[in-house]
Every structure is written in C-alpha cells, then in structure tokens.
Amino acid sequence: MISEYWLANMRASSIVGATLVAIMVIFGSSAMTLIPKQTEAANCPNGICPQFSDGITNISVNPQSGSAPLLVNLGITTSGASPKSITWSFGDGSTLGGNLTSTTHTYQSGGNFTGTVEVFFKDGQDDTQQFTVSAKGTIGGGTVGPGATVPNPKLGTQTAYQYFLQEHNNTLTSTSQPQLALATNSPSYGQGDSIVIHGVVKDQSNRTDVTMEITNPVKNLVTIIEITPSLDGSFSKTVLATGPLWTTAGNYTIKAQYGPAVNATYSFYYSGGTGSSIINKLVNGTYTLQAGQMMFNIPYTIQGGTIQSMQAIPSQSSLVITISSTSDGSLTVELPRALIDAKQQPPSSGGVNNTVTTQYNQAELPDQPFIVQINGQNVKATQTADPNSRTLGIPFHKGDTTIYVIGTIAVPEFGPIAALVLAIAIVSIIAVSAKTGLRFMPKYYNSP
Fold first, then answer.
1. Which burial class, exposed, middle or buried, applies to 304 when counting CB atoms under 10 A from its CB (0-12, 13-18, 19+)?
2. Is the pLDDT of residue 56 over 80?
3. Would 178 be classed as within a structural domain?
C-alpha cells in the first residue's frame, strides 16, 4: 500500500513539474519576442519603434559664388526625428531663427563667408554644419578690390574712374549700404542709462515696421521693440537699462527683423544692476549751426553732459563739438550730409588711364567712416547712414571737452548763393570797366 501511494505521488509531482517547465519555456520565449530592438526596424511591431535623429544629411548652397549683391538659396535635409528649431548664421553677421529647412540670403558686399546651420531635434539631439559662400564685387566683369584692374574701353578719351561713374550712375551709395543696419550710442552701459538704438532700412516695403528683440547674456528676452522707419528709412528708439529684467552683467544682443528675410544683429555690454528702477538724465535737443551761408538744424541726444557749441571748419572738412561732461556718457548726433560727409575718394591722377582731369559727383561715392577724436585721441564711434544724414554714437569720459568729427567733405565757406552773387559782381565790374575805361591800377609814366 505504501509503495503504491508513494508511486502515485511521484507521478503527480513529475506531471506538475513538467507542466511548470513547459509554461516557463513558453512564456519565456514569448517575453523575448515582445521587446523590440531599436536598431532594427524589421523587429518593430506595427512600426512603433522610437525614432532617433541621424542629424543633417545634406546641405545645399546655390549658387556658392557670384557677384555681389549675391542672392543664395540655402536648404538642408535631415533624417530621423523631426527638427524642433533651426538657426541659420550666414557668416556676414546676419542670423535667422525659426524652423526653416530652406531659406534665402543676400550677401551685399564682396568676401568669403563661412556660415553655419544648427538643428535641434525633438529627441534632444542637435547637429551643426558649415557652408561657404564667395561673393565678389564687380564692375564691367572685373573684380574690384586692392590691386584690381578696372577695364576702360574708352582709353585715351575718358579716365577709368569717369567710365566707372558713367556705368554705375547713382548706384554707388546703394550698393555699399546694407539692407538693414543697427548701432547704439555707446558700446557699454550701466544701470539707469538710456540705450539709444539707431538704424536704417535701405529698401522699404509698404511701411513695414522694424521689430527688435533684446536678449541678455543667457539668452533670456529683456524687451521687444516695434518701430516704423521714417520716409528715408532711418529709425531711432530709446530703451532704459533699468528694472528687474536688467540685472545680469555681460553682452546683450539686439536682433532686428524687417520683413521675412532682412535681419541684423548688434551687441553691447551692460555692467549689471540691482533690479531697482534708476533713470539717469538724458537730454534731447537740436543745435542750430550756421555754415557756408546756410542754417543747419542738428538733432542730438546726450547723456552725462551738455552741448556747449558746434563749429564747422571747411578747410579741414571737420566739425568741432564742445561739451561739458559731468560723468561718463555718450552723444548721439545726426549730421546732415549737406554739412559734412565722409566718402571714399578716387585715386589721384596718374598712370596710363588718367590722362585727363577726372570729374565726379561726391554724392555718388561710397561712404567711409568718419574719424572721431576726443581731446586729440581717436575713439570708436558707432555709425549708420541714410540718404540724407550720418548718425554717430560717440562715448566720452568725465572731463572730456572737445570732440572732433573729421570727414572728407564740408560745406564751403561761401554757400552757393553767396558764390553766385560774388561771381555776378565780378562779371559786372569787368563789363563796366571795359565800357568806361575804368582802371583799377594807376598808370605810371616815366618822367621826361
């Protein structure tokens, strides 16, 4: 009896054990097939594998070289996860944010530019690729630059520079001016200072506004500005560097946008603040200056001092501004081109292509920066230009008194009306003397 009972229990235990082993094998093998492999799409049931970015697989630049202004079409392709944001840096100081896989950019001046495109993917990865563009300034098919040769098909009858102006009449200024330019009245600021942002749009479209964002060193948004340019394209806006958003010290960035494709950036340094609201005194005014029998109204903004006087010196193509400075500050002054200007001058006569006197219009010459000196020392001034004026932002220190602005052209001592009156008077005197025999020098006779 015992042996039969023991054998029956042994058989039951064996059956249960075999059953458990079978269940473990079946569920064990099934569990193996329910875990998809992320690296093999064929093993992903119903295509639910997680998607990982492979980065930028291709970047296109068309054309990669050409004559300025050069319009370039740019595009990228990516694989894997979708892009979250894309930042284009074109290599000429312009940037474009957003989520554009294709865009266009115009290189206004000649040069070799290295740009980048940075893509942030939704899976947290990012990738950056570089691209190069070569833009050349051309005149009649020849490259313009140091040591360049300007072709002159009218050799012997017209100088190369006369031919240059004839072929590019009224276009030199526009080709040397960027589509959108920005500057500030000083390279650095402290708490409570007024940041005067001035700029110009070259080609306006339907009175479109310029929008600007200012971000701090950690890329947090500080303020947003929207302003409509004036009829000549210029604009100006004052921002107070004070309050709870102006605490971090470092380089702040102004990003300006005009329309869908025109943009510019500019940076300045801010020394940091406590977050409290402090406002340092800012003076806006207009100085009336008489020069060359003409009256000029010169708008200005000064912080840290006052304007004492302005004087034009035509013989030196310069303007002298006398100030009283009570602290470190800055001066923003809008100078009419009719009063003073700075232009790239043509080469002096000489050589086989310069056999006759060159005649040219100063207004058609490209702009060049003014030289700015304070108490005899050169200082770095910010400068923007529109068709009618040049705007300078000049920083100064406490105790500075004299600012020299040196250009290449200044209003003559005698204005056009005074010169015309003088010419008419001289011609009249000559005519009267011819008819009456009037002599201006006594006639001497030898003594007998």
1. buried
2. yes
3. no
